[in-house]
């Protein structure tokens, strides 16, 4: 299981009176909310790096009840960027606290079109797709929420959960590598709708190809993210193309790919394969799951 924590430290030194319950803005003479992110010691490669961006939504309580995500129009999808000095927010989007509690929602990767562009206005059905050539981390989706933050309770911790499954592929080639193999995932659902209010997903019917990204410099290890789903035994999942030859790997068992989990596969490329010309189809057992 892979996850990491973001602790948000909120320091409010000044109280502001006269804020209406229906106000859509935060006072501007209070101290700005600060973000703090500790290192992810369990999986450093999944930690935030300089340049990473997250979207943050504050949701004010009304009549002592939590509000609805997205009802603070001027602080919707505030962008924080990770820098050498920590998290920095874009100008004119600073978040401040008063005595009225707020809930905080946070997401990665940041999408400037979220809640602002047609097709992405419904925060209970945000479209997300992982098909094509994947890039570092941006095909994972992280979601976090913390509740009842105010000037009276100014310190909050956000735990980001990974909504996608992660696949790690290790290539085992019995011969010296003359080129970097091409590897792709097939017969998987790559699209989903994410309910940003609850951190849950609904699969679409989009079956597209995924090109995993190399996770090492020698081209022998790869990783990919996909929405949680069940893939049946016998499904041709992996295709390797190398020096004009190809290998197709079928699952040897049903696998339930779950959010938060890593799944590791070892794929062997060898002349000892029981098919001539070093091409063919192979039954693929899962190696590890955690």
Keywords:
290 residues; Immunoglobulin-like; eight-stranded antiparallel beta sheet
Walkthrough of the structure:
This protein is mostly beta strands and 290 residues long. The protein has 2 domains: 159 residues, Immunoglobulin-like, CATH 2.60.40; 125 residues, Sandwich (Immunoglobulin-like), CATH 2.60.40.2630. Helix content is 0%, strand content 45%. It contains no helices and 24 strands. The strands form 5 sheets. Strands 2-1-10-9-6-3-4-5 form an 8-stranded antiparallel sheet, with no helix packed on it. The chain is elongated. It starts with a strand and ends with a strand. The N terminus and C terminus are likely disordered.
Give the helix/strand layout.
Layout: E1 4-9, E2 34-36, E3 53-60, E4 78-83, E5 86-89, E6 102-108, E7 126-129, E8 132-133, E9 142-149, E10 155-162, E11 165-173, E12 182-189, E13 191-195, E14 200-203, E15 207-211, E16 213-214, E17 221-226, E18 229-231, E19 236-242, E20 245-251, E21 255-257, E22 262-269, E23 280-284, E24 288-289
In DSSP terms (H or I, runs of 4 or more residues), the helix count works out at 0
Number of strands: 24
How much strand content do the residues show? 35-45%
- Low-confidence parts, pLDDT < 50 over ≥5 residues? 3-29, 272-290
The CATH class label of the largest domain is Mainly Beta
- The structural domain count equals 2
Which structural class do you get from the secondary structure elements? mainly beta
Strand order of the largest sheet: 2-1-10-9-6-3-4-5
**Would you identify the CATH architecture of the largest domain?**
Sandwich
H/E series: EEEEEEEEEEEEEEEEEEEEEEEE
